[in-house]
Design goal:
With 490 residues, the protein is of the alpha/beta class. The chain contains 15 helices and 20 strands. The strands form 5 sheets. Strands 1, 2, 3, 7, 8, 9, 10, 19 and 20 form a 9-stranded mixed sheet that branches. Strands 13-14-16-15 form a 4-stranded antiparallel sheet. A 3-stranded antiparallel sheet has the order 4-6-5. α1 (31-42) runs parallel beside α15.
């Protein structure tokens, strides 16, 4: 629920007394906030972080932990993969659009290896091992995995495939409780604390404070229902996450996600976006969303996905987030997995990080014709789909959608269908328009003095498409920039 406190900026002249002061004030103690606080402190600033909940971590600490990095990181090289900033950029521009921010993506790719080294220097551990099976994330403590469909059509023809999902090493991961993202956050918070970064918890940010020149000089929050004023001598960094749980904003900007928020925490209410908008901040890609497809990839890859007309529409061996977007955006959220008994049993026995996403078949039959009838599909629709698929699969090929030959196998009998209609959840990717130095831009195109932002309250490297790790990746990368920029302010 969005707070009813007025969101218009407060004049510094009306603040009789500041309750807290710091050079740099960071709103939010997730991945963007902690990265900003580290770099601001290293630049010599006194840093105060304001966190809405009772502890650090945000959505990052509950996430699977992918950080999207490439261009030839030490981990990529150790696992035997070649990559370059140019190759990484080619993939990202193709996969994360349309309208992807080329300046930001170029900057991100060129700085990716350095950013990996920065994370390692901060104590984030990575195991030099690659997990090559289909899945949402590695089930064990492996450090590298394909996380964006880089090795699937159409992207494997556009750029040379290279895995870029870097995962901090951690045993006993429980995504949604304490995922791999925890082992990203914990060392970074430890680093921030060693640098003298202070934190105040249960602080709900309300609005920004500006001086008579329009410069942001502070922030108003509420702590246990009491109004608290915080002065920022150099700058304010907004890092409070997406607007996935603000129903009004979802309805206005990303209506395809109405009733299906996921992969975010309920504190993602868009407040920072609204606070900056009240100062005239520009926005970008507010309709962009990631969409998770909640079925185990070990099953999906072994069958064929069809829509409500019984037709295939996506290569089943691609990134599950791409499957989710293709299903929700282009197939009216209608999806069924057609799979034979042997393949289902093989997929159900395969190692996975998400056994709880193994869906049971809803229909089973001895023939495709019988299955088609039981599902209520038009006569001949599913039969023709399976016939065409099997004809080419007998030769190990998929000329229609180009699923890789290793996963192409004729569908036999008995055959079943998994009902995956409505199996999508998502979170928002759009937000404040920022520069590569994490300055928040006014609608005029000029930076708003004293205001910086990073993470999911901004529009980062994703403009529509997604790859797992781009949120933690650009959140930490541009969080660092925000901290550096804010510390430099006079």
């Amino acid at each position: 629920m969005v707070d009813a406190t007025p969101i218009r900026p407060r004049s510094a002249a009306t603040v009789a007394e500041w309750d807290y002061e710091a050079d740099v004030v960071v709103a939010g103690y997730g991945i963007a906030g902690v990265s900003a606080s580290i770099e601001a402190a290293r630049a010599g600033a006194d840093v105060l972080v304001l966190e809405r909940t009772s502890g650090w971590g945000g959505a990052a600490a509950l996430a699977g932990g992918f950080i999207y990095l490439g261009g030839g990181t030490p981990l990529q090289k150790a696992c035997g993969f070649d990559d370059s900033p140019e190759n990484m950029k080619t993939f990202m521009m193709a996969a994360l659009g349309p309208g992807a921010d080329e300046e930001k993506i170029t900057d991100y790719c060129e700085g990716s290896v350095e950013h990996y080294n920065w994370l390692v220097d901060c104590g984030v551990p990575f195991k030099e091992s690659f997990w090559g099976e289909p899945g949402w994330e590695p089930p064990f403590d492996d450090g590298l995995m394909y996380s964006g469909g880089e090795n699937a059509a159409p992207f494997n023809d556009i750029a040379t495939p290279a895995p870029r999902g870097h995962v901090p090493q951690m045993d006993g991961k429980r995504t949604g409780e304490k995922g791999g993202g925890y082992m990203l956050m914990k060392p970074l918070v430890d680093t921030a604390e060693k640098l003298g970064v202070r934190a105040e918890y249960d602080m709900r940010v309300q609005t920004l404070v500006t001086d008579d020149t329009g410069r942001v000089v502070g922030i108003v929050t509420k702590q246990y229902g009491k109004e608290v004023t915080v002065r920022a001598r150099r700058g304010v960094v907004l890092a409070t996450g997406s607007f996935a749980y603000n129903d009004k904003m979802i309805e206005a900007h990303a209506p395809r996600l109405i009733g299906r928020p996921g992969a975010a925490i309920e504190e993602h209410d868009g407040r920072s976006i609204l606070m900056a908008q009240a100062l005239g901040a520009d926005l970008a890609h507010m309709d962009a969303t990631e969409v998770a497809f909640v079925c185990d990839p070990q099953l999906i890859v072994r069958g064929i996905l069809v829509n409500g007309r019984g037709q295939r529409y996506v290569p089943e061996d691609t990134y599950s987030g791409r499957i989710g977007q293709m299903t929700l955006f282009h197939q009216d959220n209608q999806a069924f997995l057609i799979i034979d008994e042997a393949s289902y049993e093989e997929g159900a026995a395969a190692t996975t990080a998400t056994p709880f996403l193994r869906v049971q078949p809803k229909w089973a039959a001895e023939t495709v014709a019988e299955l088609e009838s039981d599902m209520g599909l038009p006569a001949g629709a599913l039969q023709s789909t399976v016939e065409v698929y099997n004809k080419h699969a007998a030769e190990g090929s998929d000329p229609l959608l180009h699923k890789k030959s290793e996963w192409v196998k004729p569908i036999g009998t008995p055959v079943a269908a998994l009902d995956l209609r409505g199996f999508t959840l998502g979170f928002t990717l759009g937000g404040l328009r920022t520069t590569v130095n994490s300055e928040v831009l006014h609608v005029s195109g000029e930076p708003i003095p004293g205001l910086f932002a990073a993470g999911r309250c901004t529009s980062g490297v994703c403009a529509g498409g997604y790859a797992s790790g781009t949120s933690l990746g650009d959140g930490s990368f541009y969080g660092r920039r925000a901290g550096i920029s804010a510390a430099k302010e006079a």
